[in-house]
Design goal:
- The chain has 140 residues and is α+β, with helices and mostly antiparallel strands.
- It is 31% helix and 26% strand.
- The protein has four helices and six strands.
- Strands 1, 2, 3, 4, 5 and 6 form a six-stranded antiparallel beta sheet that branches.
- A hairpin with a 5-residue loop joins strand 5 and strand 6.
- It is globular and about 40 Å long.
- The two termini are 22 Å apart.
C-alpha cells in the first residue's frame, strides 16, 4: 500500500495535465483525476476529443526502471497476442517514442500512459484468497 509520504508528494492534477499534454501526442488534456492509490498512483486522463487514458505514477524507489520497462514490454507483448481471455491495456509511447517517462522534479516519478479499459474498482473486501490465487494463475 502507498505510504502517507507518497500520497502527500503527488503532483497537482493541473500540473500533471499540462505535463501529459506536452509529453504525449493526445491533443488537449481537459481533465486529470486520481482513480486509485496503492503501490502506484493511477489517474484517468481525458482529452477534448473525449478519449480516456490512464496515467500511472510509480512510487519512487518501489521499482527500478529496468523492472518497469520489463512490465511495459510484457504488456505490449500480451496486447499483440490474439485470442487471449483477458483484455490488456495498450502502452502509449510518448512523443519521443519511449514508453517510460520521468515527471520532472523531486521525487523522480516514473510514469507510463495506457489506453483506458472500461471497468470498476473492486474492493478488497469483495475479493477472497481464492480469487487472488486465480488472478495470480491467470497473470502467470
Amino acid at each position: 500500500m502507498a505510504s502517507q509520504a507518497f500520497a502527500a508528494q503527488l503532483p497537482d492534477a493541473h500540473i500533471l495535465a499540462d505535463w501529459v499534454q506536452q509529453t504525449w501526442d493526445l491533443g488537449s488534456v481537459v481533465d486529470v483525476k486520481r482513480i486509485n492509490l496503492s503501490e502506484n498512483a493511477m489517474y484517468r486522463v481525458t482529452t477534448d476529443q473525449k478519449q480516456a487514458f490512464v496515467l500511472r505514477l510509480s512510487q519512487p524507489g518501489y521499482q527500478t526502471d529496468h523492472s518497469i520497462m520489463a512490465e511495459l514490454t510484457w504488456l505490449q507483448h500480451l496486447a499483440d497476442r490474439q485470442g487471449l481471455l483477458v483484455q490488456t491495456a495498450d502502452v502509449i509511447a510518448a512523443r519521443t517514442g519511449t514508453l517510460l517517462q520521468q515527471f520532472p522534479g523531486d521525487p523522480a516519478w516514473r510514469c507510463a500512459l495506457f489506453s483506458h479499459i472500461d471497468g470498476q474498482t473492486i474492493s478488497r473486501a469483495d475479493v477472497s484468497s481464492l480469487d487472488f490465487r486465480t488472478l495470480g494463475a491467470t497473470a502467470a
